[in-house]
Amino acid sequence: METEKKSSYNNRCAVQHCGAKVDDGVTFSQVPKLDAGKTGTVDLLANLKARQRALWETALGKVVDMSVKNLWICSRHFIKGKKARITDSSDPDWVPSLNLEPSEENRPKRTELPQPARKPVEEMPTKQTNRIS
Question: Residues annotated as region Disordered (predicted)?
Answer without folding.
Answer: 85-133
